[in-house]
Fold this sequence. Notes:
CATH class of the largest domain: Mainly Alpha
Number of helices: 16
Bound molecules: calcium ion, zinc ion
CATH topology of the largest domain: Glycosyltransferase
Number of domains: 2
Shape: globular
Largest sheet: 6 strands, antiparallel
Helix content: 25-40%
Amino acid sequence: MQRLVRLAALAFASTFATTRPASAADSDIRLNSLGYLPLRAKLAAVSAPATTFNVLRDADGSVVLNGVLSGPVNDADTGESVLTADFSALTEPGTYHLEIDGVGRSVSFPIDPDAYRAAFVTSMLGFYGWRCGTEVAFDYGGVHFGYPACHLQDAHTEPLGGTGMGDGQGGWHDAGDYGKYTVNSALTAGVLLAAWEDYQAVLAPIRLQIPETGGPLPDFLAELKWELLWLLKMQYSAADGRVSHKITEASHPGFVMPQADTGARSFVPYGTAATADFVAVLAKASRVYRPFDAEFADRCLAAARVSYDFLTANPGNVAAAETGFIGDQYASTDTDDRLWASAEMWVATGDAAALAAFETTLRPPAVSVDFDWPSVANLGVFAYLGSARDGREPATLAGFRSALVGAADTLVKNHRLGGYGRALTNYYWGVNGSLARTCMVLSQAYRVAPNADYIDTCADQLAFLFGRNPFNRSLVTGLGLNPPLHPHHRPSAADGIDAPYPGLLVGGGWAYRQIDGPPVIPACTQPEGLCWSDDQNNYMTNEVAINWNAALVYALATFVGGGVQVPTGNGSAGAGAAGGPAGSAGAPSIGGAGGNAGASVSATGGAPGEPSRGSKSGCGCRVGGSSAGALPWLGAALALAAALRRKRTSGR
Ligand SMILES: [Ca+2]
Ligand SMILES: [Zn+2]
C-alpha cells in the first residue's frame, strides 16, 4: 500500500520535472537524477533489503554492470537502513537505470561528460529571477516568467540622517522576501566571484538568458555586476566609508508580486560587518573585472579603499541599529568579516598592513568545514592561499594549507558515514546551501593536495541535492526528479503560474521549532534528516536564498565541461562491482580494499574539532583541523548568528 501511494505521487509530480521524464521508478532507489560524469564516483542509496544490483542500458535493456550492495548503514539522520550501490566502474556515456531484485528499478539517468551544464545555466537563471528595479522576463520549461520593474522607490535615507530618497535601486532580492541585505549579498557575490576565479575557462563562453547576453562582459560576470552595482550604492558616500546594512520595509510584505510591494523602504544604518564584507567583495571584484572593464574595476577598488580606511580607523564592532525595522537580520560580529576584507585588500593591492592584519588575527588551523554568511573567514583564507603575491609568513602559509587539507579530509570522512553521502553531519536552517558550499573547501584543498576523493565528495553533495536523498527528489526548483513546487518565495506564489521560479535551491530539513502564523506548522518530530516539507508556509525548510544558490552555482561550476579529469579513486564505497560485460573497459578498478560504506556510524561524532553528528543547535559550524578550541569566539558567533537568522524570518 505504501509503495503504491508513493509511486502514484511520483508519477504525478514527475510531470513537472523538466530535465527529462522520470519513468516508472521505485522510490527506494535514490540517485542523482541529473546523472553522473564518466570519471566521477557513482553511488545510489537503497533503502530496502537487497543484496545485488544491476545497471542496465535503457536502449536495449542489456545489463552493463552488476555488483554487490554494500552496507547496510543504520542512518541515524533518518532511522533508515541504507545500502549503497557503487557503479563508478561504468564510465561509458549513455542512458541507464538500476534494477534490484525485490526492490524495483530506478529512474533513468545519463552518464554524460557534461551532465551538469544545464543545471548550472538554470541556477544562474535563478539569480536573474531575483533582479530588483528592472523588468524581468524569461521562459523556462515552456512557461513565461517575469514582472515589471519593482521597488523603484528604494529607498528612504532618514535612518542614515538624510532627507528624502536616495538611490538604492537594483540588485537582487535576497530570498523569499524582497529585502536587500549587504552582508548576505557580499557573501553571495564573493562565492560567485570565487566560482569565476576557479572555473572561468569553462564559464566564460556560457550564454545566459539575460538582457546583457552577448555584450562586452561574459554573461556570468554581467549577471553578477547587476548585484555589485547595487552594493556600491550601499556606501554612504565616496567620502564616507560606512555601508548601510540593508534596504527593507519595517516588516515583511504579504505574498504579493514585487511590483505590488509599494510600502516605504529605507536604508538602514551601517554596521562594521556589512562595511567589511563590502570591502572584501569589491576588492575581489576589482581583480576579476579588470581584464574586461578597467573603469568598473577602478570604481570597485576605490570604494573598497574608502571603506577599508574607515574600518582601520574604527576598530570596534558596530552592530547596525535596526530600530524601527525587523531586528537582527543578518546580524554578525565583524571579526571574520574584517579578516576577509584584509585578505582581499592585500591580494588586490599588496597592502602590507592588510596582510599583517590578516596574519596576526587569524592563525592556523582556523579553516571551517562549514561556513556561511555569519562566518566568512574561510573566504579570507582562500584568497590568502590562492594569491601569487610574495610576502606571506611561511609558517602561517604552511599552517593554513595543512588546515585546509585537514578540513577536506574531514568532509570526505563525513560523507562516508551516513547512507546518503552528506559531507556535513549536522542540520540547520539553510544546510542544503552549506552542503553545496563544502565544494569550495574541497576544491581549494584539491589545489593544495590533488586527491580525487575531494572532487568525488563534492559531486556526491550534488547527488544528494538532486535525488540521492531520503526524499528521492530534487531539491532545486525546475530541475531533476520531482523538484519542489511550493518554495517560500513570493513571486512563485503570487504570479498565478503553477510552476515555481526555476533554478532555486530550497533550504532543506532540520529540526525546526513551531512556525508561527496561519497555518501553524508544528515542530518536526521525525528524525531530523526527514524534516523538510515542500510547503510554502514552511519557510524554515522550504525558503530559497541567494547565498544558498551561489553555493549551488559554485558546486555545479566545478563540473561544467567535466571538471578535473582525474578518475575516481579506490575505496569510495566498497561495493563489490562485478565485471560488467560492457561499459567498464578502461575503468579504474574499484571495490575491495578500503570500503567505507559499511563502516560503523558513530552517533556522537568523531574527534574533537569535527562536527558532532546530530547537532541541533545553531549553525553547527565548527573549526576544522586539529585544534578544536582555536577560535572559540568563532563558534559562538556562528551559533548566535544562526539563531538570529531564524529570527530574521519568523512571524512572516
Ligand atoms: Ca561576522
Ligand atoms: Zn524589487
